[in-house]
Amino acid sequence: MNRPVRPPSRRPVTVLAAAALVCAAAWAGHHASRVAALERQGERGQQQLRLYSQTLASELARYDYLPGLLGLDDRVGALFAPGDDAARVASANLYLAALNERAGTRAIYVLDRQGRVLSTSNWQRTDSYLGEQLGYRPYFRQAIAGNSGHFYGVGTTRGEAGYYLSAPIGNRRNPIGVAVVKVGLEALEVNWQDANSRVLLADENDVVILASNPTWRLSALKPLSAAERARFARTRQYNLAPLRQIEMTTLEVLTGGEALVRLEGSPPLLAQTLAQPGTPWRLTLLSPTAEVARAAQGGALLAGTLAALALSVAVALNSRRRRIAERLAARAALEAANDELERKVIERTADLSAANRQLQAEVAERIRAEANLRKTQDDLLQAGKLAVIGQMSTGIAHELNQPLAALRTLSGNTQKFLARGDLATASANLTTINQLVERMGRITGALKSFARKNGGGHSVAVLGAALETTLFLLEPRLKSLKPELVRELDPSLTVACDANRLEQVLVNLIGNALDAVAGLDAPRVELRAWRDGDTVTLSVRDNGPGLPDDVRARLFEPFFTTKPVGQGLGLGLTLSAGIVGDFGGTLAADNHPDGGACFTLTLPAAKETLTHAR
Ligand code: ADP
């Protein structure tokens, strides 16, 4: 058997597409959340940077005025008076030391035109600047040129980093010396350390001058060229610091000058830079991006889940739609099947109606045929009866001729006796004549009754009476054959059968028995009847030649006879069996073990009381 070819399943493709969709949504969620989180963090970072920048600017501005003021003080001005006076230097030293302490600066000192330290706040220390030649320092050069100097550098004496502010003393165009204030900015770093983020301040050379992590201080953010390193050596800007390079890898450049970087193997950090106003410096904030990664993951999860949810809803809706469509299709198919069924029912009903009409027509035909058959049967029965009568006619004629001859003689004699006046003899003759006429009447009456067409409607017959009539009808033959007639029966037994028909059957059976015993030395016919439950059985046995097998096989066939032409028609047993069958009885023929044929007739015993039985 061919299996139906199913279309290839699209399920794996659908599952792959759904998975791709969920992944795409997760990716989009990841990207959007990351961008948003980076933006938020960027804004926070900018705020923080601005705050740090303002703090730094105000810290730097605090001391801005200080170098310019120094030149106004007499004790400082006195340093430039002609001649060498240790007292003036001592006085200026004391003043500068007091000022340094009050202002909280690292050092305050005054240089002459050649860059030699004339007086300093740290005059008392062994490593005091006093007398040192600092003319090569950029802040001196800037100030001696008439400008305010700003410089971050590492001290050459003590190797201490600091912010140098310088101002010319005297006429700006032709200064007599330079006043310098060195400020330590490390306090800012302490503030920065509190923050979760890392902060660093790089100068114009990309050298870190302040950092939340002090180990980064005086490291380079980029590779330094040989020329740069030579310049640093000349100006001693960073003294002898090795300026190792901080390992910073850019992972991703973002908008607005921001970038994702990895600093010395750290996790990715968001790097934001702000130029410090009024300085060539740049403040850099490095904030961890773990939050961004978490937000991105969350976004991916959320978008993926939402997409999966939306897909599930879509799948559910789709399968619901399909189910509804299937249900509708099933309903439509059911309705179609129903319609088809109704159509078939109508067709079948029409067929059945036609068949029924045909059947009714056939039934009517059968009824007609049966009526015909019945009529034919009746005609046949009648013919059978008439045949019997014909057979009996010789005997009957003889039977009637005898009394007729006697009547003729008696009536002639009676006339003579009357003429003689012998009234007694005449009367006796008349009595005999009466008896003879009565007997003739009985014979013709029996014949008339036998020849009657139907049974008169009685369905109960007295067996004894029917037998009497039969024997009466057969009397001429009985007289001539003189058989021994054995009768063993209760004459009052009644059977459910028409009396006339029963007589016809008995005439046939006994007539056949008489035919069979004709010519025997001791002919005998035995008639027995008995009731067994609801059935009455009558057997007619003779001591004739019995029934040869070939005869027995054809006994009930119409027109089967072994008798010479004119004696037998071969209808007797056929009609008898038909009559008995009509009344619910049976007729069987057999050979008696002691010889002779034995016909057994059964009929239902009569139930109703007999009123008109003959
Ligand atoms: P018919 O008497 O006109 O021949 P039946 O139908 O009455 O027609 O009988 C058919 C045949 O059955 C008879 O011709 C006869 O050969 C056989 N038959 C009937 N009754 C007897 C009997 N009692 N003994 C021997 N043969 C019989």
What's this model, at a glance?
It is a multi-pass membrane protein. This protein is α+β, with helices and mostly antiparallel strands and 614 residues long.
Q: Ranges with pLDDT <50 over ≥5 residues?
A: none
Secondary-structure-derived class: alpha+beta
CATH secondary-structure class of the largest domain: Alpha Beta
- At CATH level 3, the topology of the largest domain is Heat Shock Protein 90
| Strand elements, count | 18
Number of domains: 4
Cross-sheet strand order for the largest sheet: 7-6-11-10-9-8
Strand content: 15-25%
CATH superfamily of the largest domain: Histidine kinase-like ATPase, C-terminal domain
End-to-end span in angstroms?
81 Å
Mean pLDDT: 87
Number of helices, where a helix is a run of at least 4 consecutive DSSP H or I residues: 14
The radius of gyration is 80 Å
Query: What is the overall shape?
Result: rod-shaped
Query: What percentage of residues falls in helices of 4 or more residues?
Result: 40-55%
CATH architectural type of the largest domain = 2-Layer Sandwich
Q: List cofactors, ions and other ligands.
A: adenosine-5'-diphosphate
